[in-house]
Amino acid sequence: MNDKLLKFGVMLIALAVFSSCDQKVTPPNPPVPVNIIKVSLQPVVYFDKYPATTQALNQVNLLPQVQGYITGIFFNDGADVRKGQKLYEIDTRLYQASVSTAEANLKVAKGNYEQAKQDADRYVYLNSYNAVAKQQYDHAIIALQNAKNQVAAAEESVKTAKTNLTYAIITAPFDGTVGFSQVKIGNMVVAGQTILNTISTNNPIAVDILVNEKQLPLFEGYQDNKKVGNDSLFTMLLPNNAPYPFPGKISVIDRAVDPQTGSIRVRLIFPNNKKVLKAGMSCVVKVHNQETAPQLLIPNKAVVEQMGEYFVFIAKDTAYKRSPDVDNKQAVDTTMESVKLRSVQRKIQLGQTIGGNVIVLSGLSVNDRLIVDGVQAIHDGSAIAAGSKPPSSKGR
Question: What pTM was computed for the model?
Answer without folding.
Answer: 0.62
